[in-house]
Structures are given as C-alpha cells and as structure tokens.
Amino acid sequence: MGNRAMISFKEDGQDKQLAPSIYLHWQGGRDSVEAFLAASQTLGIRGNDATYCIGRMAQVIGNALGGTLSLGVGCYGNFGTEWLDHGVYWIKDWEIVDRELPSFYDEEEFIEQREYDHDEFVKEILEANKGIDW
Question: Where are the domains of the chain?
Fold first, then answer.
C-alpha cells in the first residue's frame, strides 16, 4: 500500500503522453504536493521550463524523502495512472492547474488529504535541501 500520486507538467500543445512527470509512492496527498511546489519555488527552480522544473523538483523531493526508493521520473505515458491513490496533479508555474482522479473515486465523495501543516512541511523540505547550491 502506498500514498501514490503523479505530478505532471502541463504545457500548451504538448502530447499528454510525453509530459514530464514525477511518480510518488509516498507523500502523494495534496498537502504534500503543495508543499513540494512551494519549497521548489522558494529554492528558485524555474517553474516555466517543463523538463528542468520536473528534474529539479524530483531532486528536492528525493532529498526530503531520503532513501533510494519511492520516487520516479519519466513521461506521463510511462506510468499507469489507474492505481494512483491521489491521481495526477497537473502543474504549471508552481500551481496545480488540473487534476485527474483515479476512476475508482467518485469526484463528489473524494476528500483531499490534509494531514500536514503547510508551513511546517515546507520548512522540513527546505531543511532537507539546505547546503545545496541551487
């Protein structure tokens, strides 16, 4: 069992299957994803360049999660989305601009995860990335 989600970069005119994406096995709730976005922006990562944004944000998330598992990078089409607990977060310029929920959820009954205090989690992520020359 995980807390799975995918973060995909939305660009106008791009084939959805080729969208740069991050797979999260853990920390896939909206509260975590919003904190990862805020920390990445605070660190000065460019949010308007899809591959750069996803690559560097994966580094930020990996540093925060630690270990060598539970994080993947690829194109949207490389991952199955039907089993993601929290679906796909489509981002652009550090904002969640669209969302795909798994088909097993009724959108009207789906409840977003809100376990973490946003500011505290952003602070933890930034601390895990301290000392890196961004």
Answer: 5-103+113-128
pLDDT of 106 > 80? The answer is no
Structural contact between residues 23 and 74, judged by C-beta atoms closer than 8 angstroms: yes
What is the 8-class DSSP label of residue 10?
Answer: -
Residue in this structure with the two tokens 């952003």, named with its chain if needed: 122
Q: What is the pLDDT of residue 1?
A: 58
pLDDT, tens only, 43-82: 999 988 898 999 999 999 999 999 998 899 999 999 989 8
- For 94, phi and psi rounded to 5 degrees? 65, 20
* 5-9: strand order across its sheet: 71-75, 20-24, 5-9, 88-92, 95-100
In this structure, are residues 72 and 81 in contact, taking their beta carbons and an 8 Å threshold? no
Burial class (CB in 10 A: 0-12, 13-18, 19+), 33: buried
